[in-house]
Every structure is written in C-alpha cells, then in structure tokens.
Predict the structure.
Amino acid sequence: MIREGRSSLRTRTPGKGFTGIALLLSLLTLSGCSQRVISPPAPPVADTTPPILERLYAQYQQWQKTPYLLGGESRRGVDCSSFVQQTFADQLGIPLPRTTAAQHRVGEPVRRDRLRIGDLVFFKTRVKVRHVGIYMGKQTFLHASTSQGVTLSRLDNPYWTSRYWKAKRVETLTSAQGRPH
C-alpha cells in the first residue's frame, strides 16, 4: 500500500514518480562526471640501473650455479674469495687479494645501514671460517655459496643475519662506476 501525499517519488501516478527518479539519476550522473580527472599517462621510466650493478649482474649470469669448491678458481668450481676477486678484476678492473683473510683488510669499514652496491660483505660462518660476498643493493648480495654455488642471497635471511661480521668499501670502486665496459 502506498500513501499519497507523502512524496511525489512514491506515487504511482504515471510520469510523475518516474520523472523524479530519472531527474535525480541524471543529476547524480552529471555530478559524478564533473569530478572525474583523467591524468596523462606516466612518462616512461628511464633506465637508472647503475653501471656497476649491470656489470655485477653480467658476472652473475656467466657464473650462476657454478659449484662451490674450496680453493677453486674456475667455472668448474670456485670458492667465495676467488669469485669475489675475479668479479672485481673482470667486471670492475680492480685487483683484490685472493683470500677472505686478506680481502677483509682492504678498503674502508662501512656500517650495515650504509651499504652501497659493490661493497664487500663478510660473515663468520664458523669459529675460524670467514665468507665474503658483494652487496647488490636491496638487501641482496652475490657470492659463491657452499650449498648453492654462485648465487644471490638476502642479507635479511636469518642465516646470514646471524653470521654478518662487517662490510668494506674498496676506495677505487667509485672511479670504476663510471668506467665503460
């Protein structure tokens, strides 16, 4: 039952109620259109990958899944310090010592919250065992893992977090970042 006199929208008089609803919907539709803002398409993002990162990834692509071999120095098997030494020499033109014991003495200390791409990251994996990798940015580092061979790992992985020792920045790295390869 519909009561008359309360609202013109609720009456069933042909034309009156439906006209009111149509008018209301038209106004709502038009007011919605006036609020729409169409933004121009975003400009293409320029390639901002630092040259040093490109070189480090190139080395990773060449060595990926090379097995770990203590004392190894080739793609048949490599240890962490040899891989780091070869990566710095091949991709950055920077000589480094052969062993982790010597590599951790090179460069300037860097706080963990100040790491930059290319910094050396060191770990104490056992009482007298040290491990080294190369920081790649975004909590990732490149290294020769004893279990996975040459791979990328996360610094925030609990295993590596609990074994993190220190980081070093090789001074000549700054000049290598602009060097064409």
Observations:
- The chain has six helices and eight strands.
- Residues 16-35 form the longest helix (20 residues).
